[in-house]
Amino acid sequence: MAKTKKPPRPKAETPKGFRDYFGEEVLERKAMLDAIAEVYHRYGFDPLETSAVETLEALGKYLPDVDRPNEGVFAWQDDDEKWLALRYDLTAPLARVYAQYRNELPTPYRRYAMGPVWRNEKPGPGRFRQFYQCDADTVGAPTVTADAEICAMLCEVLEVVGIPRGDYMVRINNRKVLNGVMEVAGILEPSEPEKFAHERGIVLRAIDKLDRLGEAGVRALLGEGRKDESGDFTKGAGLSDEQAETVMAFMAARREDGAATLARLREIVGASTTGLEGVAELETMAELLHAQGLGAERFVLDPSVVRGLGYYTGPVFEAELTFEITDEKGRPRQFGSVAGGGRYDDLVKRFTGQAVPATGISIGVDRLLAALRAKGRIGGEAARGPVLVTVMDRDRIAEYQAMAAELRAAGIRAELYLGNPKNFGNQLKYADRRMSPLAVIQGSAERERGVVLVKDLVLGKKLAAEIETNEEWKAQPAQAEVPRAELVGHVRGILETLDGGGGA
Amino acid sequence: MAKTKKPPRPKAETPKGFRDYFGEEVLERKAMLDAIAEVYHRYGFDPLETSAVETLEALGKYLPDVDRPNEGVFAWQDDDEKWLALRYDLTAPLARVYAQYRNELPTPYRRYAMGPVWRNEKPGPGRFRQFYQCDADTVGAPTVTADAEICAMLCEVLEVVGIPRGDYMVRINNRKVLNGVMEVAGILEPSEPEKFAHERGIVLRAIDKLDRLGEAGVRALLGEGRKDESGDFTKGAGLSDEQAETVMAFMAARREDGAATLARLREIVGASTTGLEGVAELETMAELLHAQGLGAERFVLDPSVVRGLGYYTGPVFEAELTFEITDEKGRPRQFGSVAGGGRYDDLVKRFTGQAVPATGISIGVDRLLAALRAKGRIGGEAARGPVLVTVMDRDRIAEYQAMAAELRAAGIRAELYLGNPKNFGNQLKYADRRMSPLAVIQGSAERERGVVLVKDLVLGKKLAAEIETNEEWKAQPAQAEVPRAELVGHVRGILETLDGGGGA
User: Fold this and answer.
1) Candidates 1.10.3720.10, 3.40.50.410, 3.90.78.10, 3.30.930.10; correct CATH number of B23-175+276-374?
2) Pick the CATH number of A23-374 from 3.30.930.10, 3.30.450.40, 3.10.310.70, 3.30.365.10
3) Cα–Cα dist B36/B33, whole Å
4) What DSSP assignment string belongs to B321-379?
5) Where does CATH 3.40.50.800 sit in chain A?
6) Between these two residues, A57 and A380, which has the higher pLDDT value?
7) What number is the ipTM of this complex?
8) What is the predicted pLDDT for the residue at A79?
9) Residue B16: its chain A contacts at CB < 8 A?
10) Given a cut of 70, is residue B471 above it in pLDDT?
11) Which of A453, B36, B85, B236 could hold B75 in an S-S bridge, CB 3.0 to 4.6 Å?
12) B101 contacts in chain A (CB < 8 Å)
C-alpha cells in the first residue's frame, strides 16, 4: 500500500435497503429451502445455479418498476465496456440458459433454482433490495398440463412448509383472456400487436394494483391518471369511459363458482379468438386440478389476478395467504401474495427467434418466512446453544480443549470459552447469552479428585426462579459432580432428557 | 413499453468469467456445504448471512490484486451517489457486522457463513469471477487457543468432506515472525509503522507467489523487479542483497521437525520482540494441536506460508492437498491450497477505533469440489432421474397425471411427459436423457384390462447390450404388466432392488 494519510473511519452499516440475517433466521430459511427443494425434486425438477451477474441485455426490461434508474436493476460497466447487472429474478437467467444450452438440455427442461435476487427499488418497511426466490419452471411444454402441474405442486409446497389447507388460496387467471378484453376494449389489434403496447402496459400494472389502490384508484389509472396521497401524479392509459368499463367488468368477473366465472368471461371477451382460447385454457386447468384432487378450498379462478410482469402470455397464478396478521402498527391485515407465476412463451424467443413455451412458479421465501413468524409457527423457542467448557485455570487450556474435543467427537455441540477467563461470572453470562444447556467446570480441586462439575443451566434457571432460601439453593440438583472419564456420557444423558429422549 | 423498433436479439451467454452449474454439480456443492456447516455448528459457531452488497468503504482495500480497476471488486454508484460493491470475501462483511452489532452480539462471537463472493479479476481456466467460500471466524478471542481450534476444525472439515488424512497438510506460520524478519531486514521500524509499508506489501505478495514463481522469481521481486514471460515488468521492493537474503532465509527456515524450525526462526528474528513473540505463538499453537491429538501427518510449521491478504496480524494457515492430479494438458501437478486463514486483529478497529482480536478460516468450496472430482471421489455415477409416466393417449392426460401424483405421494420421484406426446420414441429418448429408472405406459388396450406396463429402463439397457436374438428379446424381463392398483407398490419394489434394499 502506498504511503498515504490514514483515511477517515468507514461507517459500519448495512447498505440502504439491505439487511443481515443471524443464527436462527438463517437456519429457518435453510430448512424452508430444503423442504421446497425436496418437493421440486420429487416432481422431477433438476437444480440449476446461474451466477448472480448477467449481461444487462440478457436480462431484458421486464420489471414493472420501469420508472427507476437502470430500469430497477443494479448495473455497472465491465472492463470491456459491456454492461453487467445483478439478476432481478430467476426467470430471466433461465431463459438465457435454455437459449444457450438448448441443444444439450432435455426437452422439456424442468429446473428449479433458489437464491437471492436484487431489485434497485426504493426500500420500505419489510421491503428489501435483496431477497430470496425459489423457482420451478418447465421449458418446452406447450400445454396447460404443465401449468396445472405447477399449481398443484405449489399447493404441496405451501402445505409442506407449514401453511395448512384453508390458510392459502391459489388464484388462477389467463393473460389470453385479458388480451381478449383488450381487443374488445379496442386497445389490442391482433394484426398490429405493437400498437397501444404502452397503454396496455399501464392497464396491466393498474389491474395488478387493485389490492392497494381499490377500484377507484384503478379506474383513475385506466383514464387520465391518478394523484397519490403525496401529491405525485401517475399518468393513466387514457381510455374512454366505455373502454375502461370493459376492463373493470373483467376484473369483477369472478362469480360464486368456476363454471359461472367462465360463463361470465365468455360474455365479456365476446368474439375474440384469443379471449375464447384463454377461457378454454382456464377451463382445462380447472379440470386437470380437479382430477388431481384439488378443489375450491385450494384454488379459484379469479380474473383480477394479472401479475405485473410484462412477459406472461397464458395462465397466470398467485398464491395468497388468507389469514390475517397484525402489522407494525397493530392493525390486522391480510398477509397477501407469497408466490406467483405463469406462462411466458416468448422469453427464450428473445434470444433465439424461435418460440419456446415455458411456465413456472416463483416462491417468495422471505415473505413466506415472515408469514410463518407472524403466525408464531416458527421462531417461538430460541435454539439451543453449545455446551460450554469453562476455563478455571488458564495454564490448563489444553485439558479444557480436550474436553470440548471429546464432546464434539461424540456429536455433541460444544465449545471452549475463548474470551478472557479471568472473571468466571462472565463465562456463565456468556453461556446464558449463547443459550448453552450445560456448563462444564473443573477447578484445581476437582482436577485433583479426577472429577468435573456439570452445571445444568436450563434446570438452574428454572430453580433460580423458584428457590427462596439458601438451604434450598445448596440442595438444588442443577449441578453434578461426575468422574472426568464419564463426562461425555453424563452430558449426553442430560441432553437426551432435555430432548425428551432424542439425541443431541 | 413505448412504441419502439424491436431491438436486435440479445446474445445468450454467461458473462465473461462466470459460469452456470447444473443438476449434480449443484447437489454436490450443497452436500459439501451442509457437511461443513454441520462441523462448524458442532464446534459452536452460529450462522450469519450478510447481503452480497456492501458499501465500498466498508470493504476496504485488502485484495492482493490491487492493480486491477476498482481494486478488484465489482462496484457501482447508488442513487444517492454512494459507492456499493459486491463482497470479495466473507471476512470484510463480518468485520462490518461485528462493528455494527457489537453491543448485541456475544463476545467472543463465533460465526460461520457460506455463499458466493465476487472478484473483478482476469478470468482464466478454472478461475472464475464468482465462487463459493465457507468461513468460520471467532471475533473477540485474543489468544492462539482460538487459532489452534480453527486449525483443528479445518482438519475435521477436510476429512468429513472426503479428503482422508495423509491427502492434506495444514501449513502454519505467524505474521509476527515475518514482521520480526522485516525488522531485521530494516524495512519495519516499530516506532514508525507506516514507513516502508509499500515495500513490505511487495515483499508479502512476493513470498506468497513462491509456489508459482520459484525462488529466483521471488528474489527478483525482492530486488529491482521481475519481467514475466509476456515481457510485462513488475517493479520490485528494491531491497539490497543483504536485506533480500534475510527474507529468503526466512522462507527457507522450515526444518525436519517443528522444534528445529522454531529454533531456526529464533536465530533469524534475533532480538526482534515481535518476531520472538511470533515464534512463541507458533510454539504454543503446535502444543495445543498436539494436545488435541494432531500430529505431523496433519500440520506442519512452514515459514513460507504468509497468505497474500494484507490484513493478517498473527497466525496464518493454509490447507494444501498433497495429492497429484492431472491438469487440462494431461500433466501431473499438485492440487495446492483449498483453504486458508489467520488472525486479523485490526479489521474491526478500522470501524470502531478499538482493537478487536479475530481469527478465522475460509474454505474454497469450489476448489475442494474440483479436487474431489479430479480424484474421482464424487461425480462418478450420474444421479438417478425420475420415473417417467408416458402419454399414449392425449385425451387421458388427467389419468396419467393421477399416476404421477400417486407415485409422488408415496415419496417416489416421478413426472409426466410434458412434451409433444405424438412420437412415443421421443418419450423413451427423453426418459433415457433424464436417466429415468422406469417408464410407466398405458395404451388403450392396457386401460381396458385395468393394467399398466412398467418398463425397467436400467435392466432394459443392460439386456439390450447382451441380447443377440429376437427370441431372447421377447423373453426379456425388463417389462412387466401390473394391475393399475398395484402401480405404486410395483414401482417401489423395483426402486428398492436398485437401491439394494433402501427406499426410493
Assistant:
1) 3.30.930.10
2) 3.30.930.10
3) 5
4) EEEEEE-TTS-EEEEEEEEEEEE-TTTTHHHHSS---EEEEEEEHHHHHHHHHHTTSSS
5) 387-498
6) A57
7) 0.91
8) 83
9) 78, 80, 82
10) no
11) B85
12) 20
Read off the C-alpha cell for A420: 478472557
Dist CA A33 CA A40 (whole Å): 10
Q: How far away is chain B from the Cα of A472, in angstroms, using its nearest Cα?
A: 31
Parallel, antiparallel or unpaired: strands B387-389 and B414-416: parallel
Task: Give the residue from A19, A38, A42, A120 with the most B CB atoms within 10 Å of its CB, the best one to mutate.
Answer: A42
Instruction: Specify the residue for cell string 485439558.
Output: A399
Task: Let me know: does B53 contact A18? Beta carbons within 8 Å.
Answer: yes
Cα within 13 Å of Cα(A495), Cβ side: 24
A368-376 LR contacts (CB < 8 Å, sep 24+): A368/A32, A368/A158, A368/A161, A368/A163, A368/A338, A368/A339, A369/A25, A369/A28, A369/A29, A369/A32, A370/A126, A371/A163, A371/A321, A371/A325, A371/A335, A371/A338, A372/A161, A372/A162, A372/A163, A374/A325, A374/A326, A374/A335, A375/A323, A375/A325
Contacts of A352 in chain B (CB under 8 A): 9, 12
CATH of segment(s) B387-498: 3.40.50.800
pLDDT > 90 fraction of chain A, expressed in percent and rounded? 74
The answer to whether the beta carbons of residues A63 and A121 sit under 8 Å apart is no
> Among A245, A243, A239, which residue's Cα sits nearest to residue A199?
A239
> Is residue B435 within 8 Å of B382, Cβ to Cβ?
yes
Distance separating alpha carbons of residues A152 and B415, to the nearest angstrom: 13
Task: Enumerate the CATH 3.30.930.10 domain ranges in chain B, comma separated.
Answer: 23-175+276-374
Return the H-helix or E-strand segment holding B453. strand B451-456
